[in-house]
Amino acid sequence: MSEPRMPIPAPEDTYKGWLFKWTNYIKGYQRRWFVLSNGLLSYYRTQAEMRHTCRGTINLATANIAVEDSCNFVISNGGTQTYHLKASSEVERQRWITALELAKAKASRMQLESDDSGDDSTPNAAGQSTGSRNSEVQSTLRTLGSKVEDLSTCNDLIAKHGSALQRSLSELEGVQLGGETSEKIRQVTERATLFRITSNAMINACRDFMTLAQTHSKRWQKALQSEREQRVRLEETLEQLAKQHNHLERAFRGATVLPSSQSNPAIDSKGPVPRKGDASDEDEENEFFDACEDVQEFITVPADPKYHRRSGSNVSGISNELGMDDGTTSLDEQSLASNPESPQSQELVPVRKRRTRIPDKPNYSLNLWSIMKNCIGKELSKIPMPVNFNEPLSMLQRLSEDLEYYELLDRAAKCQSSLEQMCYVAAFTVSSYSTTVHRTGKPFNPLLGETFELDRVQESGYRSLCEQVSHHPPAAAHHAISERGWTLRQEIALASKFRGKYLSIMPLGSIHCIFEKSTHHYTWKKVTTTVHNIIVGKLWIDQSGEIDVVNHKTGDRCHLKFAPYSYFSRDVARKVTGVVTDKDGKAHYVLSGTWDEKMEYSRVMQSSRGGENGADGRQKTVYQTLKAKELWKKTPLPEGAENMYYFSTLALTLNEPEEGVAPTDTRKRPDQRLMEQGRWEEANTEKQRLEEKQRTVRREREREANRAASPSEEALIEDSISDSPLKTEEVEIASEPSETTYKMEGPYGAPVKSGHQDNYTPMWFERLVDPMTGEPTHIYKGGYWEAKEQGYWDSCPDIF
């Protein structure tokens, strides 16, 4: 008597099938699709509903399963949920009962283990690698224990069904041949079928247990060997520490008997100077910590929060990933240890403690439509905005926030491969948008000649300078240089349009990154930023467009695509994808992630055409890649950031008062300072004063420039100057300037037709043609840091 083979419910498999569920006295039992997975029993009207609509779910961990008759059974959680179910046959019912009992036993164990682990879990910063190994072993042991419990459950079921089968056989022996024979034989057959199903489940559970045990046996042996080696290294380290302790005791006794006039102040204050033979103690300690297996990739070791010693130890994990020698990362530290005369070896320089909070944002109400309804279609830079829509940072400071994740460029500078370096540079371009996800406030428009200095040499090894080099159109130049071998410069001009429902901001200009050691020169541009729900609803920001990061030396290229948000899209929101290719167009890495959370990269092993067709009808390229590894992950915002304009840790420090900066520095801007302090009415008054002062200075500068013009043209220009201030600020782009107008170069070489001439020259930047892109741009000409050292700011204009 053969019957079709049915799927046997394994202990960890998802079990699915049709059952009849009691609905009400009118409709009775209705056919429903049930799914048993992860200790939960869910049901749907059809299989298609699994994608979008679940009709009900019951947790088996606390459920009671009862059998009513040959086909009916009941599942209840003792509360509001009770399922009266009916299978098509007794065999089908028993399959479900077996699967449900296994799932219930497993769910109960998992719930008990989660309760126990919640009481025992205590974070420990030291020994992370050992803790991760122990947690892996504990997890494996729990899995094996779960398998043993599954075997025990199956054993009980086999005993139960075996007894039933034995009773049926005994009854069959006592039955005389007659009408009851066929019925008894049918019962025996069903009992035998149930016994076979349960036995197969037992066999599957045994097979899983053996497979898991064999898989982890080698790993356990390796972990045991590693523990033995680590114990040996620990013993050696303790021996070295004992020797060093004896040496320090002898040195201390020798120092106490010396006369006070001949004592060494270095010994009195810092302890004995280590001898040459003891110089390797610190290296052996570092070797001990680095010897742990399964070290996570891209880990940075944070410096002491109070003191800072320049060392490359925080990128040792990156060096290991890129195949670099760890010795190169700690060269500075070794050289300092071997040179007792170095001033940095005598004392540690304390790092300035930066602020971690600013005053909370006041809750002022304002009718946005009353201001914006007359501004539709205008340039954003020409719309008079109160500070209620601003955040207490200027556009120059927002530009400096691109350096939030400067560590990516530090790692890129250490790369030997240009393609791996491209991955880090691409991740850096994406990371600059992570701070904008909640930042719906408008930054202050910088005044012409306004500067912002960000000096982080002591903490992070870099410093940068921004200057507003043009007012209409607004353009800012930025220059950053790091002691770790990279330079970043950019000139960004903003083109923006307000369309009623949303505001689009299009950055213009190129960003350059140059690495000193490899002389690789990278360039890229920014994507479009869109602020939605300007009038009605909650403001939210989206980034969309494409970026091409180009290495002009090697021809490598990374094409990044920022997918615009769509309510109907199934993709992850704020998704970014990219492909790194060489000069021949061959793909080497695939990048993926989101611009507000993290980026990962995968090495391409093979690529081929043959995927599903894209929107343009062409076949997509299919990349076979290795396991993805993390390139960059966003640092969580500080506590209470929602009350502080959603500023990051770096943004909170940008407007902190600092001594020695130029008088044109943004930190000294009064309206921005008043807004940060919550005095918004005073800030609005001060903002109007500064803007009017800027217009007056500009008109005076134009008059001085016009005095050098020819008399025939001077009259025309004087007429235009007598117009309202708004008219003097308007510029118009033309294809060719006429003979009666002055020719001026726009920010990127475009001829500008205007009724006035502005002879403004930036203080710290000069306009040159970039040799790589051929674009006219402002490049740092030097002198700022020298002026800061001397405290000489007499040449700076009075803009505040």
Automatic annotation (TrEMBL):
Superkingdom of this protein's organism: Eukaryota
GO molecular function term, any single one: sterol binding
SMART domains: PH
Disordered: annotated segments: 111-142, 256-285, 303-351, 657-718
UniProt biased composition (Polar residues): 120-142, 327-347
Keyword Transport included in the entry's annotation: yes
Membrane topology: Peripheral membrane protein
PH domain mapped to chain residues: 12-105
Localization, UniProt: Membrane
Xref: InterPro entries: OSBP_sf, Oxysterol-bd, Oxysterol-bd_CS, PH-like_dom_sf, PH_domain
Record carries keyword Metal-binding: no
Any Gene Ontology CC annotation: perinuclear endoplasmic reticulum
Main localization of the protein described in the UniProt heading: membrane
Compositional bias per record (Basic and acidic residues), positions renumbered to this chain: 665-706
Keywords: Coiled coil, Lipid transport, Lipid-binding, Membrane, Phosphoprotein, Transport
GO biological process: lipid transport
Coiled-coil positions: 217-251
Recorded family membership: Belongs to the OSBP family.
Protein name, entry field: Oxysterol-binding protein
